[in-house]
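Changelog-adjacent note: as of this version, every example in the card shows the full chain rather than a window. The one below runs 413 residues end to end.
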Amino acid sequence: MTITVQFFLALGLIIGAAKGMGYISYRLHQPAVLGELLAGLVLGPTLLNLLGDAGFFADSDNVEAFLLTFSELGVLLLMFMAGLGVDIPALAKVGKPASYSGLVSVFVPVLVITPVVMLFGYAFENALFVGILLAPMSTSISAQVMLELGVLRKKEGLTLLGAALVDDAVVLLMVSLFLAINPNGVVVGEVSHSVIEVILRMIGFLVFGMAFVWFILPRLANFVGRLPIAEGCLMFAIVSALLMGVAAESLGGIASITGAFMAGVGIGRAKRGTIERVERGIHAVNYGLLVPLFFVSIGLRANLRLLDADLLPFAVILTLVAIVSKVIGGTGGSLVGGFSRLSALRVGIGMISRGEVALIVASLGVNLGILQAEEFTVIVFVVIVTTVITPPLVRLSFQEPRPSSTTLTPENP
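Full-length structure tokens:
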């Protein structure tokens, strides 16, 4: 088979397996992303090692490279959709507790996880990067459970959604700053080695970039939406995400996913009709093809067989630290924001799960040579465990205490 046909075969098998496992995951009351990630582990070197079958994939290295490159488009559009979903009015309703929860729940994991990773012999740069990528939560998982329980629009649910926006924005800035300063010598764009110059360049791009996406991009989106162009809004959204991603790296020296996120925030300020057409179009393209491919590609690159007796203690301890630090951060931030202990604990528990953003940043770290195969596998392990345990813990936290079955009756005379 030619390499093109091999690519088509791999793509068909991967998308089919991803959607099938996603459905099974949904039926088990777990998020579809977990099933897609597990599909990658099944197809990858952990179990079947699909691309290693020379009978079907003689050019396995090139096929895998094509798949990974193609999946990166899904990463950009996923971050674009995250930016598109930023709801400023809803955030304002729970601004104080959401802001505190989002900020504290980012910095506590970073401050706790970094030294723990260093205790296992990793350099400070690697440990810091792991701390940053394990700081963001997976909003979709906890939000889905809260929606099922009918509490998503209560103060805990709204705070969780608002904190997720702060959470993602802060983590993206930290990732961009980390990559811009380049503590381990990885080149991102053409960043100067002067820390001050790097920071000024980054701030300049964020200021002028946000001004562009805030005032100009929504007007351009509305204008394109009125033109007789087939799927004009979808085309404009994809082009905006791609070009802002390029501009973020080449001009600002920061991660391309930050630029795509900014583009989503800007187009999110367009007219409702324009936004709906963008959401409908990108949702179909992304979740029908690109996002499943991305999450399967994570599993294809991870090899849980590497979790031997030497690495497993690190994976288990990192998972426990990731859980505890997020609960402490989310609970503490909510308490400072004025919540009761129970409500604050509910928010903290809702922040345990790691998902899309953590995997995106981890994938970026592998591509840039910051993370090695062992570290990447441990990250995938943490994501899987935290994803599985969060739904039952959230349900338990909202369970009302049962009244005592013992009733007091007056003594018989």
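Structural remarks: Residues 185-193, 405-413 have pLDDT under 50 and may be disordered.
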